Amino acid sequence: MDTAPSTIGKVAHRVGVNVETVRYYQRIGLLAEPARPRGGVRRYPEETVARLRFIRRAQQLGFSLDDIRNLLVLNDSTHCREARSLAAHKLDLVESRITDLRALRKRLRELVAACDAGAAGACPILDTLSHPPRAGEAT
What we know:
There is one protein chain. The protein has a domain at about 1-65: Orthogonal Bundle (Multidrug-efflux Transporter Regulator, Chain: A, Domain 2). Helices cover about 60% and strands about 0% of the residues. It has helices spanning about 10-15, 20-25, 45-60, 65-75, 80-115, 125-130. Helix 1 (about 10-15) runs parallel beside helix 3.
């Protein structure tokens, strides 16, 4: 594995992100921007690759950039309880979304079934979208 300092393009390629993603993370303070040598190109240390991989993995688990900022601060092996708390909160949000998505799936199945049943007159899907929700339905 290449551990010599790399250009921004090589860093981005190694992690599988766009160069503009690296620059964005620099602008918002998630990644440090190395100094540019006079007349030269910035070189990124291996730590930048590791930090960028950390950010990408955290995103894949659904953490927001603000969450990731907090996780990066905690990333010294002494803050497991705090990291667990952030992950538990994220899990609660995911569980809630799953519940909401199941309800949405049920409602869409009902609409498709009503349409498939060939209800006479108005289209059940378009009718539902055109009228106020029934009591207990989401808006």
